[in-house]
Amino acid sequence: MAKELEIWRPFRELSPLRDFERMRRDMDRLWDSFFEGGHRKRGEEAGEWFPALDVSETKNDIVVKTEVPGLDPKDIDISLSEGVLAIKGEKKQEKEEKEENYHLIERSFGSFTRSVRLPGDVQSDKITASYKNGVLKVTLPKSEEAKKKEIKIKVE
User: Fold this and answer.
1) What distance in Å separates the CA atoms of residue 62 and residue 95, rounded to the nearest whole number?
2) Of 31, 68, 108, 150, which has the most beta carbons under 10 Å away?
3) pLDDT tens, 43-63?
4) SS3 label, residue 141
C-alpha cells in the first residue's frame, strides 16, 4: 500500500494556521457527512428523530405546528413549563413477517422531544391541540399582557 508524501513543516505546530486547517478539515467532514447521509438528522441512528416544527403568531394566539405522520395522537405528550412548550412521542417501526431486503430506509422511527421557548406569556388553561393529516397543531392563546397594544402616533 502506497503512502502519500507530506511536506515536513517543523514550525507548523506553533502556527495559528494549524487551528484554521483543523477547522477546515472538520467543516469538510461535516459537509461530507451531511450529503452522504441524505435526509438523516442528528441522532437518528440512535433511535431518535426530530420532526419539523413551525411557530407562528397572530394577534391573539401563538400557533405551533409539528409534522408527526404515522403517530397516534394518544402517543403524543404536550406540556408547558416556564414558557417552554415540549412535545414528546415515539414512532414505532412497523414489523412485517415478510423477508424484505431494504436498499434504502429514509423514514424516521424512535422517540422524539421538541422544545421551544414561546415568544410571550400564554393562558395555559385555554391551550388546545388538534391532529390532522399527520400535523399536530397546538394553539396557545396569549395572555392579555402579551397581546400587542397598538399605539397611534399623531403626526403634526
Assistant:
1) 38
2) 68
3) 444 456 788 899 999 989 999
4) strand
Name beta bridge partners: 77.
88
Indicate if the alpha-carbon torsion angle 70, 50, 73, 94 is positive or negative: positive
Report the phi/psi class of residue 11: left, alpha or beta, with left for phi > 0 and alpha for psi in -120 to 50: alpha
Those residues whose C-beta lies under 8 Å from the C-beta of residue 62, and which sit 6 or more positions away, are 55, 56, 118, 119, 120, 122, 139, 140, 142
The Cα 88–Cα 100 span in angstroms is: 31
DSSP string, 59-124: SSEEEEEEE-TT--GGGEEEEEETTEEEEEEEEPPP--SS----S------EEEEEEEE-SS-B-G
pTM: 0.61
